[in-house]
Amino acid sequence: MKALYYDGCLKYTEEYPVPTIGAGESLIKIIISAICNTDKEILKGYRPDFKGILGHEFVGQVVESKEDCLIGKRVVGEINENCGTCLYCRTCRPTHCENRKVVGISGKDGSFAEYLVMRNSLLHQVPDEISPEIAIFTEPLAAALEIMDQVHIKPSINVAIIGDGRLAFMIAQVIHLIGADLTIIGRHEDKLDLFKSFGKVTKETSDAFEVVIDASGSPSGLLTAQRIVRKRGTIIIKSTYAEKVKIDMSDFVVNEVTIKGSRCGPFKPALELLKKGLIEFPPIDLYQLKDYEKAFSSKAFKAGFIF
Ligand SMILES: [Zn+2]
Ligand SMILES: [Zn+2]
Fold this sequence. Notes:
The protein is α/β, with parallel strands linked by helices.
């Protein structure tokens, strides 16, 4: 099958073997797979140990399964495959499983290929109302919703989002839905324009905020967050990157700032919001897999592959 393989650099092949399913698994024919910032960070060295097919945001159709009722269904999939027996699995934190494999990121082939094998328990059926071009946003929207699962964001406070990319766009809409006073801080005028119906947009601010969400995808985001968070405020970090940050930690101690890391989130409510049409997106820019270089350098809001 066609696949984009990573082993320190990215290679396109048409000779990759189609994976086979085991107990409790399904074979999924990929319909659309999207590129996310994490994929770009992996190419820059964020996951030096990873070898395999990249990609973790996908919509596909089950073509073979040990569970008959899944066959033919359109699905999206959660990306953390947990062991079920370690401390974190036993204490209801399966996305932090010590032995976890992460689709297209750690220990498991991803979705930049014609076929993907996934564990059935990680699959979510896509309602008929949602097109593949919209369902592809389930995983990043779930990651945005994770914030609401972790932190009580009161509608009466002010919130800042640092970043004007895709994840920031989804977080902004989720925060907008609760009615909080929202400011989006970004670098790109054209990207910030897309955010105008969700909150105030700015390139710089002298205001201070109760909650600051860093979705900039760069180390400077945390430094900005530190500067604009109020005393006893909360910083939520969504960015992952290959670089290290140098930061004055005593500042957080003195000002009693809470820092919260935030990663993958719940798929079910994400699909629910998409089904109700409560979240909007600019169209995704789709390429054939062999044109991966064009796809990775696309300036579109979201780029991906169509199979
Ligand atoms: Zn992603
Ligand atoms: Zn585990």
